Amino acid sequence: MGRFGWLKIIVILYLGLGITLYFLQDKFLFHPVPLAADYAFHFADPFHEVNIVTNGKENLNLIQFFPKDSVRKGVVLYFHGNVENVNRYAKFADLFTKNGYEVWMPDYPGFGKSTGELTEKNLYQVASLTYTLANKKYPKDNIVIYGKSLGSGIASQLASVKDCRVLILETPYYSIPDLFSYYAPIYPTHLMSKYKIPTYKYLGNVKAHIGIFHGTDDEVIPYRRAVKLKSSLKPTDEFIVIQGGKHNNLNNFDTLQKKINNLLNN
Question: Are 238 and 211 in contact (CB under 8 A)?
Fold first, then answer.
């Protein structure tokens, strides 16, 4: 086969893979596990389930975890990662409830009992509705916004338009196109990505104190990608590096637990 023939094959493969990546990007980015409407949750912490009708027909499912103590300092709005549903992340509520905070954890459209179309706009709507509900019970100075992995960009967008006590991000990304470019560097991911979620832009508009946690051995969102967010931080904000930390084990490090205790109580 001549040089032109090989070039033609390479171009066809490149375009074919690119088209596949474009149309299947939702499958790569989101891994939800839906639950039946009558599914019964069981958690160690006291909790209350809330279902909110959105757009006249869709359901936003929200789990509210409560401290065992009756004294409440405020609420943590916890925006979780891209896998499964609230069942996977409920174990992290204890970090906040033991500090006297409620934890409100919504599921995104298609995750758990939440329904609707999964779009960037609707992800932001989930965050906005959760904040509006929380703000009816707690003033802005008692609202903590927390984002883990996928949820870090959603949390950042919310904190850029709503006031809060502090914004805390765990294993965040610079933007979705930037993250995709790590996995598919030969493609123009800034053009191909249906989801943008430019965390770096949102952080520049956050008035509250920002605390970011990222592990040096993160195998999902590389540290060198996340560290670029430093350029969007205020001088008083914090980027806490967890040496040896991976994507799903930062909660096991004393550094994270002690610092979060400090952020919640100061």
Answer: yes
- Mode of pairing for the β-strands spanning 47-54 and 83-84: unpaired
Residue 215: helix, strand or coil by DSSP?
Answer: strand
Distance CA 186, CA 176 (A): 16
CA 135/CA 36 separation, integer angstroms: 29
- CATH 3.40.50.1820 matches 3-265: yes
Q: Is 100 exposed, middle or buried (0-12, 13-18, 19+ CB in 10 A)?
A: middle
* pTM of the model as a whole: 0.93
- Residue at 129: amino acid letter: L
Return the domain boundaries, the chain.
Answer: 3-265
Q: By the 8 A CB rule, do 77 and 146 touch?
A: yes
- For the chain (266 residues), the mean pLDDT of every run of 10, in chain order, is 62 66 79 96 93 91 91 94 97 94 97 96 97 97 97 98 98 94 76 91 97 96 96 96 96 93 88
Burial of 137 by CB count in 10 Å (0-12 exposed, 13-18 middle, 19+ buried)? middle
Instruction: Give the integer Cα–Cα distance in Å for 63 and 45.
Output: 11
